[in-house]
Design goal:
The protein is of the alpha/beta class and about 160 residues long. The chain has one domain (about 1-155): Rossmann fold. It has six helices and four strands; from the N terminus they run βαβααβαβαα. α1 (about 15-30) packs across α6. The longest helix is centred in the last third of the chain and has 22 residues, at about 130-155. About 40% of the residues are buried.
Length: about 160
C-alpha cells in the first residue's frame, strides 16, 4: 500500500480537499486498492469536525465525495507511518520539521513542489482568503502531478 497524508493548518479546508480529490483521482484510475489516503492539520482546533462549508461546496460542485473525512491533528508517528506527507505551504513544512523524529520514513514535500513550472509555491488557505476556486485549481493540478510521480516511481499503470 502507498500511504499519502495531506497536511494543512487546521485540516478543514485545503488538506481535506486534497484528500477527497486525490481519492477521486486514484479511484478513477482503478488504483484505489493500492493507496491509503488521509489528511491532518498541524493544529487541533477542529479535531472531529467535517470539512469547512466552502470546501464542501466546492467538492459538491465537482461531484467529489468527502464522506467520512473529519479533522485530526498530525502526529510525529504520521511521519513514519506514511510514505508521502504532502504539505500545503512553507509554514506546514516548518511545523512538520518541529515535530518529526530523527530520519522519518516519509517523503515530506509541498504539493506545489510537484508542479515543475508553477510560480505558485504555496496553496493559499481559503479559510483566510475565501477563494476556494483558486485553492481547488491548485490542488487539482498538484494532486495530478503527485499521482503521476507516484505512478512513475512505483511502476503503476
Amino acid at each position: 500500500m502507498i500511504k499519502v497524508l495531506f497536511v494543512c493548518l487546521g485540516n478543514i479546508c485545503r488538506s481535506p480537499m486534497a484528500e477527497a480529490y486525490f481519492r477521486h483521482l486514484v479511484k478513477n484510475e482503478g488504483l484505489a486498492d493500492r493507496f491509503v489516503i488521509d489528511s491532518g492539520g498541524m493544529g487541533s482546533w477542529h479535531t472531529g469536525k467535517p470539512p469547512h462549508h466552502g470546501t464542501q461546496t466546492k467538492l459538491d460542485e465537482k461531484q467529489i465525495s468527502y464522506q467520512g473525512i473529519t479533522a485530526r491533528q498530525v502526529t510525529a508517528d504520521d511521519l513514519d507511518e506514511f510514505d508521502y506527507v504532502i504539505a500545503m505551504d512553507d509554514q506546514n513544512i516548518s511545523d512538520l520539521t518541529m515535530i518529526k523524529k530523527e530520519a522519518p520514513a516519509a517523503s515530506v514535500a509541498k504539493l506545489m513542489d510537484y508542479l515543475n513550472n508553477s510560480s505558485t509555491k504555496n496553496v493559499p488557505d481559503p479559510y483566510f482568503t475565501g477563494d476556494f476556486d483558486q485553492t481547488y485549481a491548485l490542488i487539482e493540478a498538484g494532486c495530478q502531478a503527485l499521482l503521476d510521480e507516484i505512478k512513475k516511481i512505483n511502476q503503476l499503470n
